[in-house]
UniProtKB/TrEMBL annotation:
Keywords: Disulfide bond, Glycoprotein, Signal. The keyword Transport does not apply. This is SBSPO protein. InterPro entries: SBSPO, SBSPON_C, Somatomedin_B-like_dom_sf, Somatomedin_B_dom, TSP1_rpt, TSP1_rpt_sf, TSP1_spondin_dom.
Length: 230
């Protein structure tokens, strides 16, 4: 009885008799008139298709993007209410509005086992393109469970990744990128204790965060905890 002006007396859909109503609340309170469904058919909400995703709200930082839709038909007579008209999703853009690259600290590091570097050095020496690289020491902060459940033999090196452990990651040619001769994702320019992101090559379910400790111009990484920028 939310709308007393729309009131009658008679039979209800459940067979009982008494005051009955034709407002939208009667479907929930079970005091509709018997002909409510025919006289006042349910009209659900209808919305448009989603728009395309917008760009990131701000460049060079972890933020969000948006997509929207609008109402084509309002619900009536107890019809389904309208769903959410806006959705947001995580977003990072690595280029400024002017088209220049963002700081290195925003680019996730792609890493693989350090054993791959031996073959890379041999190839570089054979074609005379060998240049000096460097290493970066990180402390692992968090990683996904997918790192610990790597079954194929070529992904078993990921089991050496553990939260709190210090790891050494080498930057070798041809991963050195001009003009600064740095590896993407090495954390150059990051602030102290900033959380940086990494992704293991060969297993998209293995990723996490770490903090940069220091750069080592002369690499002396232990074999077990040694990794390589791609």
């Amino acid at each position: 009885g939310r709308a007393p002006t729309c009131r009658s007396t008679g039979r209800r859909p459940d067979g009982s008799t008494g005051p009955c109503y034709c407002d939208q609340a009667c479907a929930r309170t079970l005091d509709c008139c018997h002909d409510y469904a025919q006289a006042c058919p349910v009209i659900p909400c209808v919305v448009s298709q989603w728009s395309a995703w917008s760009g990131c709200a701000e460049p060079c930082k972890t933020t969000y993007r948006v997509r929207r839709r609008h109402i084509l038909q309002e619900p009536r007579n107890g019809g389904e209410t309208c769903p959410a008209l806006e959705e947001r999703a995580g977003c990072v853009e690595y280029w400024t509005r002017q088209g220049t690259e963002c700081q290195q600290s925003l680019i996730p590091a792609l890493i693989t086992t350090g054993g791959f570097g031996t073959a890379r050095r041999k190839r570089a020496a054979a074609d005379g393109s060998e240049r000096a690289g460097y290493c970066v020491e990180f402390q692992l902060v968090a990683l996904t469970p997918g790192c610990l459940h790597s079954r194929p033999w070529h992904t078993r090196w990921m089991r050496h990744l553990r939260e709190g452990r210090r790891v050494c990651v080498e930057c070798q040619p041809p991963a050195l990128q001009p003009p600064g001769q740095h590896c993407h994702g090495d954390g150059t320019g990051s602030s102290l204790n900033q959380l940086l992101h990494w992704q293991a090559v060969g297993n998209h379910q293995c990723r996490g965060t770490w903090r940069r400790i220091r750069q080592l111009d002369t690499c002396s990484c232990p074999a077990v905890h040694s990794f390589l920028f791609i």
